[in-house]
Amino acid sequence: MQGYHGAERRDEQAPYEPPPEPASATTHAREFHRGDTVTFNDRDGRNITGVIVRINQRTATLGTGDGGTWRVPFHALRRVLDV
């Protein structure tokens, strides 16, 4: 088994490249606005669609149109696109 000499080891090293920034998995409040139509799945797995009526620090308050309101964290919301 042969060992490396210090000069050989330095020549073989590639220049340092920092790792890429991690993809942001969190959804922030600034991505949503009052009046946006959004959807989410409730605890029973039902798909609930509503309109944002209030933006809080960690959650959005949604009105469902049938008189119901939901307070949902931003990471659970998905924007509804009009077709």
Describe the structure.
This protein is mainly β. Helix content is 8%, strand content 31%. It contains 1 helix and 5 strands; from the N terminus they run H-E-E-E-E-E. The chain has a 5-stranded antiparallel β-sheet, with no helix packed on it. Strand 1 and strand 2 form a beta hairpin.
Salient structural properties:
single chain; mainly beta; 31% strand; five-stranded antiparallel β-sheet; 83 residues; elongated
- Structural class designation: mainly beta
Q: Largest sheet, described in full?
A: 5 strands, antiparallel
Q: Output the number of helix runs.
A: 1
Q: Give the N-terminus to C-terminus distance in angstroms.
A: 67 Å
Order of helices and strands: HEEEEE
The largest sheet has its strands arranged as 4-3-2-1-5
Quaternary structure type: single chain
Tally of strands: 5
Dominant shape: elongated
What helical percentage do the residues reach? under 10%
Layout of strands and helices, then pairs:
Elements: H1 6-12, E1 37-41, E2 47-55, E3 59-63, E4 69-73, E5 78-79
Antiparallel strand pairs: 1-2, 1-5, 2-3, 3-4
